[in-house]
Fold each of these.
Amino acid sequence: MTQTSLEILQHTFGYDAFRGRQGDIVDAVVEGQNALVVMPTGGGKSLCFQIPALERQGMGVVVSPLIALMQDQVSALSALGVNAAFLNSSLDMYQLNEIEELIRAGEIHILYVAPERLVQPRTIELLKAVQISVFAIDEAHCVAQWGHDFRADYLRLNVLAQVFPHVPRVALTATADSRTQEEIVNRLQLDQNAQFICGFDRPNIEYRIRLKANPRKQLLHFLSTEQSGSAGIVYCLSRRKVDDVAIWLKGEGFDALPYHAGMPARDRQQNQARFLREEGVVMVATIAFGMGIDKPNVRFVAHLDMPKSIEAYYQETGRAGRDGDASTALMFYGMEDVVKLTQMLAKSEGNEQHKMHERQRLNAVLGLCEMTACRRQALLRYFGEVLETGCGNCDNCINPPATWDATEAVRKALSCVYRTGQRFGAAHVIDVLRGSENEKIRQFGHNSLSTYGLGKDLSVDVWRSVFRQLMVLGHLDIDVGGFGSLLLTEKCRSILRGEESIQLSEYIKTKPERKSSKKFVADVAMEDQALWNAMRRCRKELADEDNVPPYVVFSDATLKEMIVKRPMNDSEFLCVSGVGDKKLEKYGEIFLELIREYEYQDS
Ligand code: ADP
Ligand code: ZN
């Protein structure tokens, strides 16, 4: 008797229910339809082909360009009791023959193959000789010729439709705009009627954006109160900063490692391997780090510098929380970032139109930073998706900022920019407004301007916040030729004439981060920290015995559910999400013992 999809989901994978559209996708593929699946990272794409592969007769074949990850994917399936294997260039002749034998004997249920290997005649002949249940084409956007991940081998995958017309093909990707989707459908000859486009939202990521006050102190506070022992990524703009921050964090007691393109390849690979295999490594990196990183339990992504576009920001923060568990994306930004990025842009190659486009993208990031409404709504809107209400899981939703009538202040600010000749940056204009006495002011005679000292009533920080918001709103521009001088725009006119009033968000002093009451660290209550740490140690030991990454044993979410549910026997243990038959058999006793031990300690 064959098992139904739901039985496989529950017994093999240990989950109660399908998530989102997984159920519909599985049904379609099990029925033999082709499908295109666009689902965000962490959405649960794997089950969409793994379950049909197990439910239908024959062997499922997964095409993936990420050779480095195949071993881990196969290990994860083996840990669930599924016979899986891979074919790629890392195998020697002997291993290759052995796997081919197993395939011919019908012993393999899921096979991972690199695209260049799949299209070889030898592989095609092998697959023709056995029954295939489904072809899954992972990272399917690689067929798009104009995309940044284009792989020539993916173009040759049209062979699947020709040689195996009766085997369903399911193409999956996290990133495909409509043009790429069309290209996937055409090249892989998928039917038009089974498309599952699931949107971009990553609801488990909390977006938090803070002004830079003392960024190192702010980061340290975040790490020590909310993320101690968690794995995460800290992005910096320059290689030098990466090295400095990594050394400093190490000194503060964190397991921090650097990663940037200026390091010897061997060191880079070593650091990456440690990040993937070990618990709690903090990777300090430039944007060179991240492509093809598939670590599911990255708990935070922090930006110490402002990213240069929303696309980059969303892709980088998207590396957090692939396992669906609560994660944080924290960014620190300041006016100096905007000036630096604007200047880098001005010096970069490319024509004027390209530069203008890039400046608009940069402005969109500043807009995201300075906005007072839901950040997720804004992010999704940027990608053309509508979220009807506030998300409840970003800083602005959790702690809505107040606004004030800033018409007077804005008028003073703009006229001071005008009177100083639009030749100075915000720092000097603020000095003039506040009536400071310094050499530069005397030198330019700015102490005799009518706006000199007119803004004494507001602090420097409040003035900075006014200037940043005016940039976002488009009243001020940065002169890329000058040294970051401020320029007035057309938009200023009606305000200067007194025809328009303006509301700005209140400057919020960077206060200690939320949760400093220390009730939770890594989303686990303080009183459960000892059990949490013991479980993670145990998981690491078991993983090392089998030479697999820790998450192959259990995900963070599964461990956290054990802490909350405190299962006392096998049947209760099975009710924990992520525990299936095989894992109960293999690890049940060990973890139940651990939980019992701490249960008695508590009482
Ligand atoms: P993707 O490939 O789309 O990035 P994965 O397939 O790796 O995502 O799944 C992300 C995480 O979600 C994994 O830890 C997986 O075990 C978990 N997951 C997937 N589907 C379910 C489900 N129906 N119930 C609970 N957890 C799930
Ligand atoms: Zn929100």
Amino acid sequence: MSTLFLHGIGLLVTNDQHTSGARADDPLGAVEDAALIARDGQVVWAGRQADAAPQVARLLQGDVERVDAGGRAVIPGFVDSHTHLAFAGDRSAEFVARMAGERYAAGGIRSTVAATRAASDEQLRATLQHFERELASQGTTSFEVKTGYGLDVDNEERLARLAREVTDEVTFLGAHVVPSEYADDRSGYVDLVTGPMLHACAPHARWIDVFCDEGAFTAEEAERILTAGRDRGLGVRIHAGQLGEGEGVRVAVGLDAASVDHATYLSADDVAALAASNTVCTLLPGVEFSTRHPYPDARALLSAGVTIALASDCNPGSCFTSSMPFVIALAVRELGMTPDEALWAATAGGARALRRDDVGRLSPGASADLVLLDAPSHVYLAYRPGVPLVRRVWKHGVELRVD
Ligand code: NIG
Ligand code: FE
């Protein structure tokens, strides 16, 4: 039985208002002068260190790893609910052209498809493992990975299978764009996605997703594809409103999607539909940063009562950052979210977007996925943008190497 005792925490963010010492109206469930005990990978106690004495005596028996946080902040590991890490190739030239004024378009995806199809399993596996370490070093302890750069049955199946080696949260995105060989037969491609491709990928996946936007799939196509995935037992998510308004949000909410992602362009009806639903709205401000698009209106979504998650969307085209601290800094600086709202959205919000209750919080029963910051509070993530503040990271109570 292994026990981790983290004490001397200047500020502990639990995302649980019931934590001893937390204010009942604070969604972050933040506690000053705190301690946390984890056993066998799960949090068993968290709260004010001064209140810990009886529990500490009982729980701190046997083999205990003691860590003095030295007054620094501890937060839940980031939950990055939207990435496209299963790919090969390089599109830095596309980024350079964009910075010189070119517009982002969905079609660039096809160049990554060609490179990904040409890559071996070993290359793709090495890339995924590299990203897993890169994410951990920045405090991300849970992450989703989409397929979508294979776009034929064998390649989509292999991306889903390889992604499953690094995460439980695999999303089948055969409907990323229509591949070149189906340029004259869109409905044939939708048949492939909803038939043999779904059949091959579903065993490795938890989710189905569609890129419903200009240059990608229509709302009618999205509805067909998502319904097929749902009928196959997959949860629903969607890329919508990245390049323009459309019917994607309506379709996704109608299918009880876990998340609508991007949401840069939303109608008032979209915002109302999200507010009245169980669907999280996942904002990806790294995309707007890397494509020079206008940022989404996070304040309008929050005022309407929509639940927001923040994610990286790490991909070789529209946004090649895997840094959740950077995303938080953008959310605060560019979306007008408070540092508290941004941290919640990058942890508990991401967990909601993946319909998970065991991550994104640090209260009893949760996985002991936590980050010790080299800072007195999470506010520093936005206050000191670009500075590596992630000092130590634990997943299931086991410390990950972050250097
Ligand atoms: O989320 N929008 C669709 N997919 C990615 C971009 C993929 C690419 O350009 O390679 C996104 O932005
Ligand atoms: Fe995406």
